[in-house]
Amino acid sequence: MKNTAAKALSAPKKLAITAMFTALTLLATSVIRIQTPTFGYIHIGDAFVLLSGFFLGPLTGGLAAGLGSALSDLLGGYPLWVPGTFVIKFATALTAALIYRAAAEKAKTGKGRVAWTILAGVVGEAVMVIGYYFYNVIIIGISGSGFGEAGIGAAFVTSLSEIPFNIVQGAVGVVLSTLLAPVFNKIARIGAD
Questions:
Q1: What value does the CA radius of gyration of the chain take, rounded to a whole number of Å?
Q2: Distance (Å, rounded) from C-alpha 100 to C-alpha 91?
Q3: Distance between CA atoms of residues 43 and 59, nearest Å
Q4: Which residues are within 8 A (CB) of 54 and not within 5 positions of it... i.e. 6 or more apart?
Q5: Cα 72 to Cα 153: distance, rounded to the nearest angstrom
Q6: Is residue 67 within 8 Å of residue 22, measured between CB atoms?
Q7: Distance in angstroms (rounded) separating the CA atoms of residues 68 and 89
Q8: At CB < 8 A and 24+ separation, what contacts does 14-18 make?
Q9: What residue spans of the chain are helical by DSSP H?
Q10: What whole-number distance in Å separates Cα of residue 110 and Cα of residue 112?
Q11: DSSP 38
Q12: In Å, how far from its chain's centre is CA 35?
């Protein structure tokens, strides 16, 4: 009976922490935006995308990361990016979570854990950079250059200009999530999915 009550209490706690990570991702993505010359923006929300994956697990963390990031695009005037952002940030958190989970079993010490946290963040953010590159190609194709051979070629070349900005955003996300992980470890460790 005692175990059943503990499980019943964990579901509301997990829901509350998932909502918290969704809101933190939304706020961190929305509040500090640095516009780029390519009409996108750099933000610190990726730190919370990664933290969502680290502490909520691959599925729930992916959902929190994707929803918070997509809401930021929707509310910030980037509705065309909402579906891509949801999928890309979900995949970023999912990837980081899977690596982080494998690392947690291998590295019990501080230095080992930090190294694995950084690795999980870097690989997760690589998913983000690649995902936005291809989604940008699709957006350019939809918005004018078309999907003919010349249009697709132009979209692939034009989309290269976004990569450096996404790398900077990803690097900031990795650094901040690595610094914040010990803090969130104390409040958010809830038996990830």
A1: 18
A2: 14
A3: 23
A4: 61, 96, 97, 100, 117, 120, 177, 181, 184
A5: 30
A6: yes
A7: 9
A8: 14/56, 14/60, 14/190, 14/191, 17/55, 17/56, 17/187, 17/188, 17/190, 18/56, 18/60, 18/63, 18/64
A9: 2-31, 45-56, 58-75, 82-106, 110-140, 149-159, 163-188
A10: 6
A11: T
A12: 19
CB-neighbour burial class of residue 63 (10 A; exposed 0-12, middle 13-18, buried 19+)? buried
Burial group, residue 188, by CB count within 10 angstroms (0-12, 13-18, 19+) = buried
Say how many Å lie between the first and final Cα of the chain, rounded.
22
- Report the C-alpha gap between 167 and 158 in whole angstroms: 16
Summarised one tens digit per residue, pLDDT across range 111-142 is: 677 888 999 999 999 999 999 999 999 988 88
Per-residue tens of pLDDT for the chain, all 193 residues: 344 333 444 788 889 989 999 999 999 999 988 988 877 888 999 999 999 999 999 999 999 999 999 999 999 999 999 999 999 999 999 999 999 988 877 766 666 778 889 999 999 999 999 999 999 999 888 877 666 666 777 888 888 999 999 999 999 999 999 999 988 877 655 444 5
CB 75 within 8 A of CB 33: no
Query: In this structure, how many other beta carbons lie within 10 angstroms of the beta carbon of residue 2?
Result: 6
Give residues with Cβ within 8 angstroms of 142, minimum separation 6: 80
The token pair at 28 is 């961190």
